[in-house]
Write a structure and sequence with these properties.
Elements lengths: L3 H5 L2 H4 L3 H9 L8 H9 L13 E15 L3 E8 L8 E4 L3 E8 L8 E3 L23 E6 L5 E6 L4 H4 L6 E6 L8 E10 L14 H5 L7 E4 L5 E5 L4 E8 L8 E2 L4 E7 L2 E8 L10 E7 L8 E5 L7 E8 L28 E11 L5 E5 L16 E4 L4 E7 L5 E5 L4 E6 L2 E2 L8 E4 L4 E6 L5 E7 L2 H5 L3 E7 L2
Parallel strand pairs: 1-4, 3-8, 9-12, 11-18, 19-22, 21-29
Antiparallel strand pairs: 1-2, 4-6, 5-7, 7-8, 9-10, 12-16, 13-17, 14-15, 14-16, 17-18, 19-20, 22-27, 23-26, 23-28, 24-25, 24-27, 28-29
Helix pairs in contact: 3-4
This protein binds CU-O-CU linkage and copper (II) ion.
The site of CU-O-CU linkage has 10 residues, from strand 5 and strand 28.
């Protein structure tokens, strides 16, 4: 009866998701009756229904264009870049500020910008044909929205993403807390991998049969912010906030911080219920981790950060050198103290939809990746009915069955969810996500309370799988 304490407090009925709990509270003078109603009541206070704009507008100009940049080991690489940088510029605002991005397309192809993880109005979501016309070469589009969450988000094209992201089009959007915790420093690390040809340039073609049959395109040169051999220099005593993003098309990283005092404080940008050790987290394409890194005042040892996704074949990601003067250590409680529902029996709620992930022969690439037996036209030129309809502000329980022998990091636009179970065994991840890996032949359950009406993409974030059809839409309607 653990949910009782979350349900009977009157605060629940007054709190942010007033429209949602109204139903839960109305249904009974004391306890909501159904599992879904209880799950919804317990959800209240997790994150706000609406943004609270401060009236401050931050305007950014962003141009996508071909560029030649010293990347990887410093040799000239022909890429596609936002504002001539790979990764693109980190856009940084405070919670409550409105973002306006005046975008210009100087690529030889159509494109759009999708704001991965952001709960925003559907029309700003950057999905071609579904939410906006694609931006033609030479064209412009203005994105404007006020984020509801302080978070580590990112942005990337949603047109031919397996090519455009691979060529270098991605950047981080940081929405700082209204009062950011006083870390000594903050770093943004974008992880990527690059597949090069014999001349050292980005290998073509894209969407090869091999990439499609496997877990997408995996490169051999692993970079942080576009460069290999990353060395981070820190002073003893520093406490650093590290924002990590996996922008690779297919590669999964499992960062291991070894002996460092490293804790995960946010997953996909949202704070955890309590911090957890920074090891063993499978950072799939699209996922973000915020790490709280403390350097002991007496330490001078060098540290290394390794990717241990394949235990037998680890990759060194970076080394850390501790040197210089003793820095003053900021002391403050971990910001990871969010309300994240336990949802201990939410998996018993009726299933809104059971998604089946699989592959078929055929289609434009020879292999089609399917959701419920259907490969979506990834250009979205042909509209398809949504797979499932959710009501805004209501709890929904969704099940996934991966019938295939490959992994599928499933991503939902416009909403966060919580993993409830893997292969029928309940898990209590102390955080929400917007992307989760469904392993080969695995089944998972998730719980979600959508807060924004519209038609939202759901797709595999292995960009080759998405391109070859593993996409669908979820409709969220007003209750
Ligand atoms: Cu980063 Cu449609 O996703
Ligand atoms: Cu996939």
């Amino acid at each position: 009866m653990r949910y009782v304490e979350h349900v009977v407090v009157p605060r629940s009925c007054l709190a942010v998701l007033s429209f949602a709990v109204a139903t839960a509270c109305r249904s009974s003078s004391s306890l909501p009756r159904s599992v879904g109603e209880r799950a919804l009541a317990e959800f209240v206070g997790s994150y706000p229904e609406d943004a609270t704009p401060t009236g401050v507008m931050r305007t950014f100009d962003l141009t996508a264009a071909p560029a030649e940049l010293p990347l990887i080991d410093g040799k000239k690489l022909q890429v596609w870049a936002y504002n001539g940088q790979v990764p693109g510029p980190t856009l940084r605002v405070r919670l409550g500020e409105t973002i306006r991005v005046r975008f210009t397309n100087r690529l030889p192809q159509e494109t759009t910008i999708h704001w991965h993880g952001v709960r925003l109005p559907n029309a700003m979501d950057g999905v071609p044909y579904l939410t906006q016309p694609p931006v033609p070469p030479g064209g412009t589009f203005t994105y404007e929205f006020t984020p509801k969450d302080a978070s580590t988000f990112w942005f990337h094209p949603h047109v031919r993403a397996s090519e455009q992201v691979e060529r270098g089009l991605y950047g981080v959007l940081v929405v700082e807390d209204a009062k950011p915790p006083p870390y000594s420093r903050e770093l943004v690390w974008v992880l990527d991998d690059w597949l090069l040809d014999a001349s050292g340039q980005i290998a073509t073609p894209f969407n090869t049969r091999h990439d499609l049959a496997m877990d997408g395109r995996w490169g051999t040169a692993i970079t942080i912010n576009g460069l290999t051999e990353t060395v981070m220099k820190v002073q003893p005593g520093e406490r650093i906030r590290l924002r990590l993003l996996n922008s690779a098309n297919g590669r999964v990283f499992t960062p291991d911080f070894g002996d460092l005092d490293a804790k995960i404080i946010a997953v996909d940008g949202l704070y955890l219920r309590a911090p957890i050790p920074a090891r063993g987290f499978e950072l799939a394409p699209g996922n973000r981790l915020d790490i709280d890194l403390s350097f002991d005042r007496s330490t001078s040892a060098p540290f290394e950060i390794w990717d241990r996704y394949f235990a037998q074949r680890p990759n060194k990601l970076a080394s850390i050198e501790v040197e210089g003067e003793l820095a003053q250590t900021p002391t403050f409680a971990s910001p990871a103290s969010a309300h994240v529902p336990l949802w201990s029996d939410a998996v018993d709620a009726p299933i809104a939809h059971d998604f089946h992930l699989d592959a078929q022969q055929g289609g434009p690439f020879g292999i089609a990746w399917t959701i419920d037996g259907i490969a979506m036209d990834s250009s979205h030129r042909h509209a398809m009915p949504p797979s499932v309809t959710f009501e805004r502000g209501r709890f929904a329980h969704v099940h996934f069955t991966n019938e295939s022998p490959r992994i599928h990091p499933i991503h939902t636009h416009g909403m966060f969810f919580r993993l409830l179970a893997r292969n029928g065994v309940r898990v209590d991840e102390p955080f929400f996500r917007d992307t989760v890996i469904v392993h080969p032949r695995e089944q998972i359950d998730i719980g979600v309370v959508p807060t924004d009406a519209g038609t939202w993409m759901m797709h595999c974030h292995i960009l080759e799988h998405a391109e070859a059809g593993m996409m669908t839409t979820i409709a969220v309607t007003e209750p």
